[in-house]
Design brief:
With about 600 residues, this protein is mainly β. About 5% of the residues lie in helices and about 35% in strands. The protein contains 4 helices and 43 strands. The strands form 12 sheets. A 7-stranded mixed sheet has the order 34-43-42-37-38-41-40, with helices on one face. A hairpin with a 5-residue loop joins β32 (about 380-385) and β33. The longest helix has 8 residues, at about 410-415. The relative contact order is 0.12.
C-alpha cells in the first residue's frame, strides 16, 4: 500500500519569541506539520513467513494456537490456564497445554461473554475482566472454566479514541486499571480519563493513581525494586518522528504531561490548559519520560521477566508488544521489544522479536498485542489481526534466569499509605493559631445533613460557603476532609488556596479544575481521589453517616505551590502563616445502593 500523504496541516504553535504564551488561545502563532497515513497491507501468517521471524540466538517462535480472531490481552493462571480476550467478538477464550508440547490442546473454549471484553487479571483464583465501563469477576474452576460473572465496577468513564481498559494487580494487592484518553490531545471533562486508577479488589473504592497518561495499556512492576513502569502512547499527527512512545516510572499523584506536554518536556502546539494555567507551568508540574522509543510504534501489553525460562542476562528486564503504526512512513512497531534494566533503572529499549513487517515494510502478518509468561517460562504473544497466539521459548545453552521471587511490595505500599491515619488539618501543628473564624453555608446547618446534590451520588456540586473576614488576611485556604472514610482516612475531598483576601464567600458549583478563573487565581490541589476541585461525599451505601469537615484558614500571605500539590504539601507550605481558622461540619449517609456498583 502506498503512503497517503496528508495535506500540510496548520496548527496553533509556539513562537520562540513568546515563550510564556506557548500556544495559549489567540496568540496568533502558526506551525506547518507534514504527516503520513500509512497502513501496510495484511497478509497471511504462512509457515515461511513465521520461519523468517528474527529473534536473538537460542530463541524459537512458533504458533501456540491459531484461528483465534481478534486476540487481544493474555493472562496465565498459576495452574497454567491461558486466557485470551477478544474485543471484537466480545468474549474470553481458555486454552490449555496439559501435555506440555508447546501447543494448545484442541480448540479454545469460550468461558465468558461481555461486549468489548478486553482487560484481564488473575488474583486468588479469580479472573478479573474489564470492558469499556465495567469490571467483572469470576471464580476459576478446577478445569479452568469460569463461574458466573459478577460486576464489581459499573461506572468507569465512557470511552472515545482509546476504549481498551487493561488490568493488573500490584504487589500491594490493589487492582490497577488503565483508562485511556477519549481523544488525540484535549482537555478531558472526566478526570478519570487518561489516567491509571487504583482500586480495592472488591471495586468499592478507587482513586486516580497517576494522570496525564494518553493511553498506558502496558504496565508492570519491576521484580527487583517493586516500582511500577508503564509505556504510554505518544500523540498522533505530529510527523513521522514525533512524538516518541514513552516509558514512565509511575508514582502516586504524579502527572505525566498529556495533553499539553510530551516526551522530555516538549510543548504540544495545539492545546491550551484550562483555568489560565500556562504550558510552561504545566510542564513544570509534569514528569518527563525516562526513555523514549520510535514514534507511533503503539505499545501494548508489557511484562517483566517471570520464571526461569529465559537466559540469566534477561533478569530484571521487561518485554512489550508494539502493535504497529498507521501514522508513519516507514512503518514502526509490529514487533516485541526488550526493555533492558540495570540496577532497577531502564537503559535501553531494543527489538527482540521482529519480522512481522514483510515485503520491505509494505505488508504485515501480525499486529502484536497481548504478552504474558506461560507456566513453563515461555513468552506468549497474541496477534489481533490474524488470530495467532505465538510461543517464544529459549532452547539455547546459556545459564537460565533465577526462579521468580515475589515482587517486593514496600514501594507501592508506602505510596498507598502516604497521608493517611493522621489528624484532621485543624488539629495539626501546621495550622496552630489563636485566631478563630466562623464558617457557614445556606445549603445545610452545622452538623446537619448535606443535601444529596452535593454528593457524588448526584450532581456532586460544591456547596455555597461563607466565612468571617479576617482584616489582616492576605489569602484564604480550604481543606475538606472525611475522618470516617475507609480504608483511607481522612479522605481529602477539597483543597483550595490563594483565595483572594477580599473574597469571603463562594457560590455553589465551582469549576473542578486546577486553577479557577472566578475567583481569579484560586488553585485547587489534588484530593485523595486524585481529582482537582470539590469532590463530594461518597460513603459506601449502608455506612453510618460520615462527617465532612470544611476547614477554612486565613493566611498572612499567598502560597507558592503548584496545584498538583496534596494536603500535606499544602499544610507544610502554610505552616507559620495561619492567622485564624474555623470549620463547618456536615453529615452524609447513602441509604440506597446505586443500581451499578
Amino acid at each position: 500500500m502506498k503512503s497517503a500523504l496528508l495535506s500540510t496541516i496548520a496548527l496553533l504553535a509556539l513562537l520562540p519569541a513568546v515563550e510564556a504564551a506557548h500556544a495559549q488561545q489567540g496568540d496568533g502563532t502558526e506551525l506547518q506539520i507534514t504527516t503520513n497515513v500509512f497502513k501496510p497491507n495484511k497478509v497471511q501468517p504462512t509457515s515461511d513467513r513465521i520461519k523468517a521471524l528474527k529473534l536473538p540466538e537460542g530463541f524459537t517462535v512458533a504458533p501456540f494456537a491459531q484461528g483465534l480472531g481478534n486476540a487481544r490481552i493474555v493472562a496465565v493462571s498459576p495452574e497454567g490456564f491461558v486466557y485470551v480476550s477478544r474485543r471484537e467478538e466480545g468474549d474470553v477464550l481458555l486454552l490449555k497445554d496439559e501435555n506440555g508440547d508447546g501447543k494448545a490442546d484442541g480448540p479454545p473454549i469460550t468461558v465468558a461473554n461481555r461486549a468489548q471484553a478486553h482487560g484481564l487479571a488473575i488474583k486468588d483464583g479469580t479472573l478479573y475482566l474489564a470492558t469499556v465501563k465495567e469490571v467483572f469477576t469470576a471464580r476459576i474452576e478446577k478445569d479452568g472454566t469460569l463461574g458466573p460473572l459478577t460486576m464489581i465496577i459499573g461506572n468507569l468513564p465512557d470511552a472515545g479514541q482509546h476504549p481498551n481498559r487493561t488490568l493488573a494487580f500490584g504487589p500491594d494487592g490493589m487492582l490497577y486499571i488503565s483508562i485511556g484518553s477519549t481523544c488525540n490531545a484535549c482537555n478531558e471533562s472526566n478526570p478519570e480519563n487518561a489516567t491509571l486508577l487504583r482500586a480495592t479488589p472488591d471495586g468499592k473504592s478507587r482513586t486516580i493513581f497517576a494522570s496525564g497518561l494518553r493511553n498506558t495499556i502496558g504496565f508492570d512492576w519491576n521484580p527487583q525494586t517493586g516500582e511500577l513502569w508503564g509505556l504510554d502512547h505518544g500523540i498522533d499527527l505530529l510527523g513521522d518522528e514525533v512524538q516518541p512512545e514513552e516509558l514512565n516510572r509511575l508514582e502516586r499523584g504524579k502527572q505525566y504531561g498529556w495533553p499539553h506536554v510530551y516526551g522530555a518536556g516538549d510543548i504540544y502546539p495545539q492545546s491550551t490548559p484550562v483555568g489560565g494555567v500556562t504550558k510552561p507551568q504545566w510542564r513544570d508540574q509534569s514528569e518527563p519520560m525516562v526513555i523514549g522509543y520510535t514514534a507511533h510504534a503503539a505499545p501494548m501489553q508489557m511484562a517483566f521477566l517471570k520464571g526461569s525460562g529465559f537466559p540469566a542476562q534477561y533478569e530484571g528486564d521487561a518485554f512489550a508488544t508494539m502493535r504497529g503504526s498507521w501514522n508513519r512512513n516507514p512503518a514502526s512497531g509490529y514487533e516485541v521489544v526488550r526493555i533492558h534494566f540495570e540496577k532497577g533503572e531502564p537503559t535501553s529499549i531494543e527489538p527482540f522479536l521482529g519480522g512481522f513487517l514483510t515485503d520491505g515494510g509494505k505488508t504485515h502478518f501480525a499486529r502484536p498485542v497481548g504478552l504474558a509468561f506461560a507456566k513453563d517460562g515461555a513468552l506468549l504473544m497474541s496477534d489481533d489481526v490474524n488470530g495467532v497466539l505465538y510461543r517464544i521459548a529459549y532452547d539455547g545453552a546459556a545459564p537460565k534466569a533465577a526462579a521468580a521471587k515475589p515482587v517486593p511490595a514496600e514501594a507501592m505500599t508506602a505510596q498507598g499509605k502516604k497521608g493517611f491515619d493522621v489528624p484532621l488539618a485543624l488539629q495539626r501543628p501546621e495550622t496552630e493559631t489563636k485566631g478563630a473564624l466562623a464558617v457557614s453555608s445556606t445549603a445545610f446547618e452545622a452538623k446537619g445533613d448535606i443535601p444529596l446534590r452535593h454528593s457524588e451520588y448526584a450532581e456532586g456540586v460544591s456547596p455555597p460557603l461563607r466565612w468571617e473576614s479576617v482584616p489582616e488576611a492576605a489569602s484564604y485556604a480550604i481543606i475538606m476532609e472525611d475522618p470516617d472514610s475507609k480504608p483511607a482516612k481522612p479522605f481529602v475531598h477539597w483543597l483550595a488556596w490563594n483565595i483572594p483576601a477580599g473574597v469571603t464567600s463562594l457560590p455553589e458549583g465551582l469549576q473542578e479544575q486546577l486553577r479557577l478563573k472566578e475567583p481569579e487565581g484560586v488553585l485547587q490541589g489534588r484530593t485523595t481521589a486524585g481529582t482537582h476541585g470539590y469532590s463530594g461525599p461518597k460513603p459506601l451505601a449502608g455506612d453510618p453517616a460520615h462527617s465532612y469537615h470544611i476547614q477554612v484558614l486565613a493566611l498572612d500571605s499567598l502560597i507558592d505551590l503548584p496545584p498538583t500539590a496534596d494536603r500535606d504539601q499544602l499544610l507544610a507550605a502554610l505552616a507559620g502563616h495561619v492567622l485564624a481558622k474555623g470549620e463547618l461540619v456536615g453529615r452524609y449517609a447513602q441509604t440506597v445502593a446505586p443500581p451499578k456498583p
